[in-house]
Amino acid sequence: AQSVTQLDSHVSVSEGTPVLLRCNYSSSYSPSLFWYVQHPNKGLQLLLKYTSAATLVKGINGFEAEFKKSETSFHLTKPSAHMSDAAEYFCVVSERDSNYQLIWGAGTKLIIKP
Amino acid sequence: EPEVTQTPSHQVTQMGQEVILRCVPISNHLYFYWYRQILGQKVEFLVSFYNNEISEKSEIFDDQFSVERPDGSNFTLKIRSTKLEDSAMYFCASSEGGNNYGYTFGSGTRLTVV
Hints:
The structure holds two protein chains of two kinds. Chain A has one domain (about 5-114): Immunoglobulin-like. In chain A, about 0% of the residues lie in helices and about 55% in strands. Chain A contains no helices and twelve strands. Chain A has strands at about 5, 10-15, 20, 25, 30-40, 45-50, 55-60, 65-70, 75-80, 85-95, 105, 110-114. Chain A is globular, with a radius of gyration of 13 Å. Chain B has a single domain (about 5-95), classed as Immunoglobulins (Immunoglobulin-like), CATH 2.60.40.10. Helices cover about 0% and strands about 50% of the residues of chain B. In chain B, the strands form two sheets. In chain B, strands 2, 4, 5, 6, 9, 10 and 11 form a seven-stranded mixed sheet that branches. Chain B has a four-stranded antiparallel sheet with strand order 1-3-8-7, with no helix packed on it. The radius of gyration of chain B is 13 Å and the shape is globular. The relative contact order of chain B is 0.34. The chains are: A mainly beta, B mainly beta. The interface of A and B includes residues 34, 46, 90 and 103 of A.
């Protein structure tokens, strides 16, 4: 069965410093992996997705994530945080075995300090 | 950029009442979904809809729930007799193709059952 673990419920960084949001997954077969972001009172926006092409995936707003099969990880990074990055971030997995339903992590709230 | 539109943004209803949550998916999308997020919990899959019928549903989606695409643009979720535990944020999503395309989500309807 698939599952997603986001290792930190909250991450706090200073503006201009790097961001690392950690995600580990379990999956029987080749998964598809996504990061979604939710700003306050907004919908869920797709940041980036991995679907068995390049392992380093670039997304919107300067975010990227690397799929590491050996570590079953899909961590989200950004070189320099901006105040507008403050939001909740969700790591999501889907695979053929479960008819590609999205299985969600619990979310990580990213706090940006001025 | 095309959006998925959900109405209302907030709904308060009395226990036992029927509610209808409305969604307008992106016009050329073929697959439609409902997810929900109970406060403090993970986002959960409810149902997927394709070709005018339910293609997949979770255990949560019992006989109290139904979905409909009454015309070419709207996609609705009906809860026949609401319970306190139905209080959650309900997200509608649509996708162009299969699930690996990544979904476009609406901004959600916050349902509060009192």
